[in-house]
Amino acid sequence: MPYVINWQLLAPMLLVFVGGVAGVLVETLVPRERRHGAQRLIAYGAIVAGFATAAVNASAGLLGPAAAGSVMVDLPSYSSWLILLFFGILSLLLIGERTLYAGGTAFAPQAAATPGSADEREAIEKRVEQTELYPLTLFALTGMMLFASADDLLIMFVALEIFSLPLYVMCAMARRRRLLSQEASMKYFLLGALSSAIFVFGIALVYAFAGSFDLGGDVDGQSATPGLASAIALRPDGSPVLLAGLVMIGVGLLFKVGAVPFAAWVPDVYGGAPSPVTAFMAVCTKVAAMVGLARVFFVAFGGLRWDWQPMMAAVAVASMVIGSLLAIVQTDMKRMLAYSSITHAGFLLVAVAGAFQPGGSQLSSLGAVLFYLIAYGGATMGAFAVLTTVRNRSGEANSMTSWAGLGRRSPVTAGLFTYFLLSFAGLPLTAGFIAKWAVFSTAWRGGYLWLVVVAVLASLLAAAFYIRVVVTLYFTTDSGDAEVGRAGWGTKAVLAVSCGLTVVLAVVPGWLLTFSAQAGEFLR
């Protein structure tokens, strides 16, 4: 039978990839002083073109397998692509910020130079910029888009490496605290390599059971062998080999999600990486990982839900509780947001553990996850944008003591940060409240009442450390040394869009809930 590559379905992903290739050519052919403008134009153009193409294809109902059936372009794929590209361009706006850094950027002028060396000082004097960050971001986005839509475990592994490798490099490029940044990159690389090895070992075990890498099986005659779902349906009791492979694949995916007990890398990497890169990782990596995880467990392992649901529920509880407890004792803002990210991974997994698939207009587990990711992404991107603007003499002010009394000195900036934190906490009149209702309600309908109760209690615990920051901003007599720097138009745009998105989803969430309900069905 013919193996067909549908270029029209793959066009959004290919446009972003071509933008990355063009960025590499710019690094080779364009003079250094002109690269920054050229790279920004190419990166923004590629993302806008990819976003528009995905929106047009989705509205036209262009669905189905592509790339010989190894990529499934369905509504969850389009939804995740649109979310990734939307937050990807916001991340690029933060990456391109120059006003806050006196004409420079948040990144080391020469990442390969030894910190404090003569080579580094010379690069600083010449105002060298690392413009290759733009194609690296585009390549990472390409891998994330492929990961979220892969219908083949081997393609999923390749996509995992495509978006991980650029992130390893980007984490090591902080302008200040260079050694901490390089340490974060090395930890991320080593633990990421370990998780990838576990993931691919799990793929091998699953292949030994099923004889196939396909998740769903034969779709439109483009798959020569029955997929995992078909093989499991023939042997619903499974086997030790299959269950071992399932667990190992789950470990690899949960590492990228940043869930306990596979989240040891999160606080160190988030704390050491440049803040714009941290924002990109905190949002886009989680989007790709969650949609990929849902595709694997709902499509391929749906017949084994009674085996993996307790595992997901246990990981969700551990992430919510441990993430909240460790966040309370943090004194560094970026590490606090890192543990907050772990907590939110737990909330997302509540919906996955519930595995509620109504097949109608009701919100499915994946639909709830998509809505939560958008609400979480808006608040996270805005919080990190604020973080880049709050500065002291040494640069970014990450210590919580430096933020003391900021509400009196800069009420607008502190007010924005407070609103983002309240959305994280899930208080009423915020997007986070609607998002938590969405994931909790799907778990409730899926029969996991006890998990919903634990999640509600964990939400109350998580609110404690957010309110602690608010008290520091407004109700402490001490006055920190942090001030709000003059941000460029890119950072201001990110703040405006993030705040607007968080407000809109809190006030009129119905349109996005409807969209999420429609987009929450995999094409098997």
TrEMBL record:
One term of GO molecular function: quinone binding
One Pfam family matching this protein: Proton_antipo_M
Domain NADH:quinone oxidoreductase/Mrp antiporter transmembrane: 150-461
EC number(s) from the headed UniProt entry: 7.1.1.-
Subunit structure: NDH-1 is composed of 14 different subunits. Subunits NuoA, H, J, K, L, M, N constitute the membrane sector of the complex.
Main location: membrane
Enzyme class at the top of the EC tree: translocase
Function: NDH-1 shuttles electrons from NADH, via FMN and iron-sulfur (Fe-S) centers, to quinones in the respiratory chain. The immediate electron acceptor for the enzyme in this species is believed to be a menaquinone. Couples the redox reaction to proton translocation (for every two electrons transferred, four hydrogen ions are translocated across the cytoplasmic membrane), and thus conserves the redox energy in a proton gradient.
Protein name as annotated: NADH-quinone oxidoreductase subunit N
Keyword Methyltransferase: no
Originating species: Naumannella halotolerans
Subcellular location: Cell membrane; Endomembrane system; Membrane
Protein's GO biological process: ATP synthesis coupled electron transport
